[in-house]
From TrEMBL:
NCBIfam families: lytR_cpsA_psr (TIGR00350). Residues 325-397 are annotated as: Disordered. It comes from Streptomyces telluris. Residues 336-375 have a biased composition (Gly residues). Residues 77-247 form the Cell envelope-related transcriptional attenuator domain. It comes from the Bacteria. This is LCP family protein. The lineage of its organism: Bacteria, Bacillati, Actinomycetota, Actinomycetes, Kitasatosporales. Belongs to the LytR/CpsA/Psr (LCP) family.
Length: 397
């Protein structure tokens, strides 16, 4: 009874101040069928140097503390897209990282672009129309971001072929604030790195990072053998380390300890309007006990489109893999789209070492044996590199 009372108080305390979005509402009716009470949660990392109202973050803070350049860099790209599948009643949690430069069909008839650009394209379109109607200031920013979220959610849902039940969005400032709450965070590197672009300067081996260093750790892509794809593995490793630390400190079961984290969530994170985040906190032990793993979705090669290096993808293969790994049957829908299928590994420029290279080559994901489907077993070679298991401190490039 006491536990229930604490939970009730915690829910209402959090519910009063959290930033919510209705962007998922428009997608629910036309979503692919899910599996029972399982939950698919999309984590969105927004590469924006602006606050919730669209105002630039202080220049000194962005450049000196975040080492992230001016507010003109990054725009509203979603540089992190991770779908987490949480089975009904517990069980193994499976997370899928979508490489940010995957070249796909953007929802709303906007043509093919990098998947990270869906948010910014839709936001700019909406704001142009709203500005003509006299909308301005914080209201314009809010409504523009809602359009960006809706386009991102619709694009990912179509690309992966599974429903998105909930989402959480955080920008650079939010990541930094969360990292401050949980710092220091242990990470492990296979090799020493030094990168002037992200500010990453770390020796090889196990080490502890403060919030500023953590941001550099997850943002570095220059100088890595796999480029952008290695950055994806860095993000996975960091999330694994954070959740492991929270479990070790007993944070998930202690509302007093959770309060500091919730304070940041209320300030910097946007979630959908139907998500009870305390329910997620109760499920969090599944993420921290080694009962969860990250996979990076496969690419077929690299190409140059509209002057930009992109990742070529096979949407049918991606959908088959995701549905097989989440235990869902294949569901073919006309117009599900997501970009034209690409047969076999291809390289048309870009890639590792290129000035605008979108990623590296490491791992599987290029062969004909990577198709998966139905409830058939899925080989780890089907994905881009080996999985990153949660529940510890993985060592990465």
């Amino acid at each position: 009874m006491l536990t229930s009372g604490v939970g009730w108080c915690a829910y209402h305390w959090l519910d009063r101040g959290v930033n919510t979005s209705s962007a998922l509402d428009a997608l629910r009716d036309g979503a692919p069928r899910g599996r029972g009470d399982a939950v698919n949660l999309l984590l969105i990392g927004l590469d924006s140097r602006k606050d919730m109202n669209g105002k630039d973050l202080p220049k000194e803070f962005v450049q000196d503390e975040l080492h992230a350049g001016s507010s003109d860099i990054g725009g509203y790209n979603t540089n992190t897209l991770i779908l987490m599948h949480i089975p009904a009643g517990g069980g193994k949690v499976t997370a899928f990282s979508i490489p940010r430069d995957d070249y796909v069909e953007i929802a709303g008839g906007r043509g093919e672009h990098k998947i990270k650009e869906a948010y910014g394209i839709a936001k700019a379109e909406a704001e142009e129309k709203l500005s003509a109607q006299g909308v301005k200031g914080a209201d314009l920013e809010h409504r523009g971001r809602e359009a960006g979220r809706e386009a991102t959610l619709a694009t990912v849902q179509r690309f992966l072929g599974v429903p998105i039940d909930h989402f959480a969005e955080v920008n650079l400032l939010g990541f930094y604030d969360i990292a401050k709450v949980v710092q220091p965070v242990q990470v492990c590197l296979k090799h020493a790195v030094r990168d002037r672009y992200s500010g990453a300067d770390f020796p090889a081996g196990l080490q502890e990072l403060d919030a500023r260093q953590a941001l550099s750790f997850v943002r570095q892509r220059h100088g890595l053998p796999g480029g952008d794809l290695d950055r994806t593995h860095r993000q996975q490793a960091f999330l694994s380390s954070v959740t492991h630390k929270l479990k070790e400190q007993g944070v998930w079961s202690d509302f007093g300890k959770l309060q500091g984290l919730f304070d940041v969530i209320k300030k910097d994170v946007v979630i959908d309007n139907r998500w009870n985040i305390l329910d997620f906190a109760r499920q969090a032990p599944n993420l921290t006990g080694g009962n969860a793993e990250f996979h990076t979705l496969p690419i077929e090669g690299f190409a140059n489109r509209k002057g930009e290096a992109v990742n070529l993808v096979d949407p049918e293969k991606v959908r088959s893999l995701v549905r097989a790994m989440t235990g869902q049957k294949e569901e073919r829908k006309e117009g599900q789209g997501g970009g034209a299928p690409v047969a076999g590994p291809q390289h048309e420029g870009g890639g590792p070492g290129g000035s605008k290279g979108s990623g590296g080559g490491g791992g599987g994901g290029g062969g004909d044996d990577a198709k998966g489907g139905g409830s058939a077993p899925v080989s780890s070679d089907s994905f881009q590199g080996p999985p990153v298991k949660m529940g510890g401190v993985p060592c990465v490039d």
